[in-house]
Amino acid sequence: MTYFKTFLAAGLISLAGLPAFAQQNITWWDFLSGGDGVRMKALIGRFNQEHPDIKVNATTLEWGVPFYTKVRTSVAVGQGPDVMTYHLSRMPLGLKEGVLDEITQADLDQAGLSKDDFFPAAAAAASGDDGKLYAVPFDIHSIVLYYNKSYLEGSRFLDGDGKLTGINNLADFEEALALAKEKGSTAPVSYSTADDGGIYRVFYTLLAQQGGELITGEEVLAGDNLQKAAKAIEIMTKWSENGWQPEQTEYEASVALFTSGKAAFHLNGVWEVPTMVDTEKKGALGFEWGAVQVPNLLGTEATWADSHSFAIPKGTTMSPEKRAAVMTVIGWMEKNALSWADAGHIPAYKPVAESEEFKKMEPNATYSSLADSAAYDPRSPIAGVASPVYDASINIISPAIHGYMDPMQAAEQVKSELQSRLH
Amino acid sequence: MAMLTNRRKEVAVAMTLVAPFVLTFALVFLYPTIRMVELSFTNSPLIGPGEWVGLDNFRRLLTDNLFYTSLKNNGYFVLLTVVPTTVLALCIALLITRLKGPLQAFALSIFFLPYILPVSVVTQIWLWMLDFQFGVLQSVFTMFTGKPVPVFKNPYWVMPTVAAVTIWWTNGFNVLLFIAGLRNIPRDYYEAAALDGATKKQQFTRVTWPLLWPVTALILTLQLILQLKIFDQIYLLSSGGPFNSSYVLLLMVYREAFQLNHGGYASAIALILFVVIVILSVLQFQLLRMGRRR
Amino acid sequence: MKKFRTIENWVLTVGTLFAAALWIFPLYWAFITSIRSEERVVSDAAGIVPDEFNPISYFEVIWNTRLLNWYFNSIGTAVIITLVVIVSGMMCAYAISQMRFPGRRLLYGIVLASFMVPSQALVVTQFILMNDLGLINTWAGIILPQLIVPVVIIVYKQFFDAVPKEMREAVVLDGGGDYTLLFKIYLPLNWGITTALAIITFIMAWNQFLWPFLVVTTEDRMTIPVGITQVNDAFGVYYARLMSVALLGAMPVAIAYLIFQKKVTEAVMISSGVKG
Questions:
Q1: CA-based max dimension of chain B
Q2: Chain C neighbours, 3+ Cβ pairs < 8 A
Q3: I need a labelling partner for A71 at 20 to 30 A (CA). Which of A195, A209, A309, B93 fits?
Q4: Is A220 strand, coil or helix?
């Protein structure tokens, strides 16, 4: 009888103990699926292995408009994920759409993080106008200039160590493009000229390098910024006219042009670093490559930059335990961001970004200084990924650089189109 | 009395027989239709309540350039697909019926195969074939125009290309109907015509064509309704671009409802599309019937 | 004259086969691409003749996507849709064809009319409805709006109309009711048409894109047509993988078609009323 009682008691205790072992299933959405997506999948796999009590179920959706459309619709019908990646450039738009939940102090404590752990610019970008945090910054990423050494060998653009050198202004860069073309490059500088993001990133870099501003206060392209925008479009048009940049190129094709050795230079995000590394490792690249911060072509050191962050969608009815699990995931990711840096990104979490290991990483080290020259999107609900600014890039700037419109005319259209969206 | 109970019983049984269809119909067809009309007079978001705004959505629609572009493109797409696919299908069907035995089955299966592919498989394959940098068909374009053409990024090429892909995808269905129609024509009609000394051409215009007219009318009707509802291929191939030059009404509905969260405005556009399709298909049906009588 | 006929025949046959070869070329090209390495696909050396057999992208796609999930969802929902559409359509058609009840003509009028009405125009309010019912991201949500296929009723009615009245009498004398009549007489007499309609409904459901695309947001609930667009992501070079996933997605129904070719061909002809 006592045995039976003990048995029963033991059973009850183990039953009571069950919830502690119950696995928290976390639904995770991201838009990372290429080079950096592979790294993220590995990170999630490692997390799941180390945490038997939490299981992250990751879904990768299509980057850009499809992703943010899905987020918006899902939040509206209460079917959002538990945690998602989010571009900080889109923060004002996200807040206006009301899809982001506040990250409270308690949440941060749970994750073992504090606001001061992050680069101030990233932390500010992740906050609302009310000063509250709506996302946890994960990285800073920008575009960099990839180069194929085989086209530059024997020219003044490679130094003794085989590193890119001697590009100090637009004329230098265009000289290098002409040289590459002479040497048989069919697309001396490739970037995705048929894609909103690809065009915007280059346009914004060229605008910022002239000290230009897209939005000043409440005005789009105020004052001589209009001329600067026209100048940026003009440069891109010229590259097109001279056959230096590929026409109407989709994102994948722009990368393939570089990896297949047809492009001498490639303007694209740091997130393609893993693609180059992996292809080279397989022995399929066929040339030596490098990546540097986009050279200062127009007088001001500046490069388009954005941040990935983690956010919790509004309106989810998560149990406190689940929310704690979500924050545990976020905290773990931040502390293991070194593996994310492996995907080319610069961690936003200072303890990792300032660590010795990170400083030794290649090629990150060659462009990690860009954290200082980063030109973020203007803080506005018309800016950011999948915003009116990106729409204008594909609908107005793209036609212009392909010769359907004059640069000044395009700049004016960008101004009037965006101005009308601002109010 | 017995008659009456029988009658009542018959009605009761009939009700149980039609109930599954009628109830589903009411739930997923009738009710959404009524809701669509209702929402088109409000400013509601996709999910959640809105306010009655009367005819505002329709007034706005009349000043929305994208609406006219979309309407025009819907019409353009119908022009590009309906008659061409019918003519092409007839030609292919005439060719295939000449073949014998296994060769005929083989040829038919090749022309029909694309029809059973999911639309996204079709678009993936064609996006790759027509890729501006690496597409295998670009060498064909280079042969004719002297340089590659970014078909989905060029405002003049985009609609014809989407139409061509659509025809490749769905043509097999029409071929099959024509073949069935051709098989239904009794052989002795041709023999009689041949005895009368009719040439091949006369045989076609006097025998084949008139007897094939019902099938042709059916294909035209089915195609018209189908092509007015174009969404999938446009969304997957060009997303309405470049610079909105391939926007169509259903894409506009999708964008307003699901990307911009304008449930009311989207319903207004959907209502217009709904009415347009109903009117056109009724009109065409009547026209074709008249054509047949004559 | 005779000789001329033969030559003409030959020319036309060869021409037809040539046209068929052009028609199948996209699928051939997709296959050739899918068995090349990603690097070779974008290199100038990639000709139109197969020169490499490297199935790695197939493994990568199966390994890295939820393809098996999507198959399961696609086949599962399409089978349920087919069953429900056929059974409910058959019942409704039987009542319209063989019974007298108030509203019969109205009902048939509605069925005929809804043949012309575009359900795609209803996606917004159907989505709202599915949300109200809590069916977003569920099989029921995918299935429900696809259950209205008026053609099934129209075709069944024509065939039921043609069944001789004498066939009814034996059953009626035995005291059998309408359900017995339907399942013992009318259905067995029309097995051919039932298979035909089932095949057509299945293909339609299997190829549906817009609705599942709207109502499903999580990857593990996606159907094949929606799922394979997800592989179309923004970063990286992966044409071989894209073609692999496209071909894998098309595979089951394509194989089924090639096996049951004759049945499918007949199904299309019968259900469109061209062949009775």
A1: 87
A2: A, B
A3: A195
A4: strand
Looking only at the bridges linking them, the beta strands covering A265-269 and A139-148 are antiparallel
Bridge partners of residue A346, in order along the sequence: A140
C235 near A CB under 8 A: yes
Which residues does C54 contact at the CB level (< 8 Å), separation at least 6? Answer: C35, C36, C37, C40
Q: Distance between CA C249 and CA B119 in Å, rounded?
A: 11
Sign of CA dihedral C258, C259, C261, C267: negative
- Tell me how far apart the alpha carbons of residues B204 and B198 are, in angstroms, rounded to a whole number: 9
Confirm or reject contact between B50 and chain A (CB < 8 A).
no
Q: What is the pLDDT of residues B156-208, one digit of tens each?
A: 999 999 999 999 999 999 999 999 999 888 888 888 888 888 888 888 888 88
Q: Looking at the complex, does the CB of residue A27 fall below 8 Å from at least one CB of chain C?
A: yes
Q: Select the residue from C237, C241, C242 to test the A interface by mutation, using most A Cβ atoms within 10 A.
A: C237
**A&C contacts, CB < 8 Å:** 77
pLDDT at B268: 96
What is the tens place of the pLDDT at every residue in B224-263? 888 999 999 999 999 887 888 899 999 999 999 998 889 9
Cβ neighbours around B286 below 10 Å, total: 10
Beta-strand relationship, A308-311 and A136-137: antiparallel
* CA-based nearest distance C172→chain A, Å: 53
Instruction: Please tell me the distance from the alpha carbon of residue C149 to that of residue C89, in angstroms, as a whole number.
Output: 8
With b meaning 16 or more CB within 10 Å and e meaning fewer, what string describes C243-273?
bbbbbbbbeebbebbeeebeebbbbbbbbbb
Cα separation of B120 and C256, whole Å?
Answer: 19
ipTM for this prediction: 0.91
- Helix pair C150-161, C261-271: axis angle to 10 deg: 80
| A107, A132, A344, B69, B274 from A102: Cα distances, Å | 9, 7, 29, 41, 42
Q: What is the largest CA-CA distance in chain C?
A: 78
Binary contact (C42, A259; C-beta < 8 A): yes
> Under DSSP, is residue A139 helix (H, G, I), strand (E, B) or coil?
strand
Alpha helices in chain B (DSSP H): 2-25, 31-39, 56-62, 65-98, 101-112, 119-129, 138-145, 158-184, 187-195, 200-203, 209-228, 232-237, 249-254, 263-293
pLDDT at C9 > cutoff 90 = no
Beta strands in A231-286 (DSSP E): 265-269
Neighbours of A307 (CB within 10 A): 27
Considering only alpha carbons, which residue of chain C is nearest residue A271?
C235
Distance (Å, whole) CA A203 – CA A190 = 14
Cα–Cα distances in angstroms (integers) from residue C114 to residues B83, B173, C128, in the given order:
24, 21, 21
- Using CA atoms, how far residue B33 sits from A77, B40, B248, B258, C128, in Å, is 21, 11, 21, 18, 12
The whole model's pTM is what? 0.86
Q: Strand A54-60 vs strand A24-30: parallel, antiparallel, or unpaired?
A: parallel
- Are A257 and B133 in contact by the 8 Å Cβ rule? The answer is yes
Whether the CB of A166 is below 8 Å from some CB of chain C: the reply is: no
Pairwise CB contact (< 8 Å): A77 & C131: yes
pLDDT, one tens digit per residue, over A367-378 is: 766 667 888 999
Q: Render the burial of A212-225: b for 16+ CB within 10 Å, e for the rest.
A: bbbbeeeebbbeeb
